[in-house]
């Protein structure tokens, strides 16, 4: 069975190479480091190249960020202890979660300068330390 599969793969590769067509792809990688952060994680990107994620500051606190053509912007839910941003759509609306002082986790959407919290009524999620 393995030799038959290997043979099929070889035939496929030979057919591509002998066809004279070149298959190529361009992949660009960028390093994302929020200025002054001890760690940065990207979690979402939209078609305009806006990137969202979170970073850890020098004291270990976690903050959300937006990176676009003008640079980095911290995005923290008002009064939150911890913020993670997970997605951004092509309208610039940002999806994330934040925690409060008792480590309860809440979902939110940021649209422009407005924040809307989304909590399931039967859920009481907590960050674990």
3D architecture notes:
This protein is mainly β and 129 residues long. The chain has a domain at 39-118: Beta Barrel (Thrombin, subunit H), CATH 2.40.10. It has one helix and eight strands; from the N terminus they run αββββββββ. Strands 1-2-3-4 form a four-stranded antiparallel β-sheet, with no helix packed on it. It is globular and about 60 Å long. The N and C termini lie far apart (49 Å). The mean pLDDT is 83.
Shape: globular
Identify the strand order in the major beta sheet. 1-2-3-4
Helicity range: 10-25%
Strands, total number? 8
Mean pLDDT: 83
Class inferred from helices and paired strands: mainly beta
Largest sheet: 4 strands, antiparallel
- Order of H and E elements: HEEEEEEEE
Question: If you compute it from the alpha carbons, what radius of gyration comes out, rounded to the nearest whole angstrom?
Answer: 22 Å
Task: Describe the secondary-structure layout.
Blueprint: H1 2-18, E1 39-45, E2 51-56, E3 62-68, E4 71-75, E5 82-88, E6 94-99, E7 105-111, E8 114-118
Antiparallel strand pairs: 1-2, 2-3, 3-4, 5-6, 6-7, 7-8
From the structure above, extract its key features:
single chain, 129 residues, mainly beta, Thrombin, subunit H, four-stranded antiparallel sheet, 1 helix, 8 strands, 13% helix, 39% strand, globular
Compact summary:
With 129 residues, this protein is mainly β. 13% of the residues lie in helices and 39% in strands.
